[in-house]
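Work package 3, deliverable 3.1, input record:
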Amino acid sequence: MTTVSASTRRQRPRQPWNWSAATGRILTYAALLTWAFICLFPIYWTISTSFKTAVNVTQGDIIPFIGRFQGDWKGWRSLGLSPDTIFEISTVRDEFFRRFANSMIASVGASLLAVLIGAPAAYGLARFRYKFGPWQNKDISFFFLSQLLLPPVVLAMPFLVLYKELALLDNLLGLILVYTLMVLPIVIWITRDQFETIPIELEQAALVDGCTVWGAFFRIVMPIALPGLVAAFILSVVMCWNEYFFAALLTSTNAKTVPVMVASQTGSQGISWWTMAALSTGAIAPLIFIGVFLERYIVKGLTAGAVK
Amino acid sequence: MSHTATFARPSLIPEGRKSAGRALIWVTTVVLLGVLLVQGLDAAGLLGFEFKDWRPSLYAYLVWAVALGTGQVMIRGEAGQKALFLLPALLFTIAMVVFPTVFGLYIAFTDWNLSSFEGQKFNGLDNLRTLIKDPYFWNSLRNMTYYVLSVFVQYALAFGLALLLNADIRARKFFRVAFLLPFMLSPVAVSWMIGKSLMEFRFGPVATLMRHIGWDNPAFFTTPWIARFSIMALDAWVWLPFMIILILAGLQAMPKDIQEAAKVDGASGWASFWNITFPLMLPVSVTTIVLRIIFQLKLADIVINTTSGGPGGATDTVSSFIFREYRDRSNVGYGTMIAEVYLIIIIVFITVLLNLVGRFMRREAA
């Protein structure tokens, strides 16, 4: 969409030099660059701080390789991830990798489960007419979407008690189930929007050829809707990766995730910012990767259904 | 289940298959209820099994759910296959939401502190009475109003930035990714990155910058209003990308010829914005603001990790307040009561908001 509008604009004849237009452009770029700086500086600050020493922190050095700030592996060494410690035994590194793996399993598992049960439901709501007693499609859709309103605090305590009874406390499966519940409305919202754009004639042709409704769904609809499913999946992964509230209440030693580890270190580290910075860098690295390389899907997921 | 079902009229399904399906559902329902009953009686101490946990009931529920789906297909053929699309999500959500909500209502009326040995004890409306007299609750509710109002400031900022991104600029991809990134980062990491390090009183570069500008004592989290504004700034940093993306999508979907026509007619940028762009963007704006308010009502992570509600509760949100009630005081009964009351407030507020918005949009359209 962007590339098209950009190319049509470029075809417009260049206007003669014009002071007010030039000022306008300069101001536009100044504002854009200022905001880009505000967005990126905290990230740069975190990554650079992970290579600082105490004196760099207290003196507030910002630019590396000038004067005092020559870069130091201190922060990464405390995590057991610096070049000289990477092959040694490190309990902190093991701990970090365990939290990282937990976060990975919980967010990918929950997102997969949510797409697995959410996409068919969204398809059903988009295509078929249901009637469960007085409930029709509109009410069922509303029931799913209304889950978005539920603040985590309402469910937190009952879940704590429920999970204790079900032996799911401090258990990754338990976390996956809660996260699935959290992202399911969003997955249904995004994928329903995607299914509604697919012409119904394709499925009708498949049905005439002898496909069942499920066969048509898997063979015809799924491949076309794949971008929407991927968008829903990636957005879910990001949301689950960042989730803190449930993870803090429902997990302790085994299933603790990265945000809980970061939060538990925040208070205790005092001035050793390099450790916190290295830890934060590790926690946000996958997200920056997703943001830079999969931006398209995030935007697609966020704008689905909201903008028509 | 079977391929012939596709073209079969419901009446063509063999009676035997129908009754087998019905039998399957009935048997598993009885099994589920039986397991629940046995476990319930056992938990009450009337039977001697002493189950370790309630897992058997969970498995019984799973078996029942599978049987219900299979039975639907056996009894109703294609209609059953269609129901099968919806059933897993529906059964999952009901199991995960209905029980906790109902159970939460029960907890809300008990005196239950996890750190005391007495266990739970029904205490009627006592929690509600405490709540009405609790200044910290009303304080956190008042803070929520401020936070919700800050959404409108964020909206104005986001609209401006979306307009800039929609302008004829180079390196659009770079700016889009840069503007999106804050939304991707986890609020917990952001709390440290910005709240506890960039804005740190002694060494944080923002504090240093403020000293240079002339604010002698740049303490961002010690006086109530400054702390509140600092939290709002952090929150805006995280959530502006969400609003920018939605508004930008709306701007890009807008017909280009209308704006071009206004330009030809000699309308100034300002006039064409207020007369054309803004009214056309109204539906998108309303969606964006409503969605954003819904998410704002859950604001917690940043507050918990940056200020823990301080100073003196000035930055507390309802969620962070309840979180402390759970975590630090183990006050389960009272915390749940606050949560349930908050849920009711949210539902009423959002219903009224959606009604007002609906009426407003209809008047605009007329």
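The CA atoms of residues 73 and 79 of chain B lie 7 Å apart.
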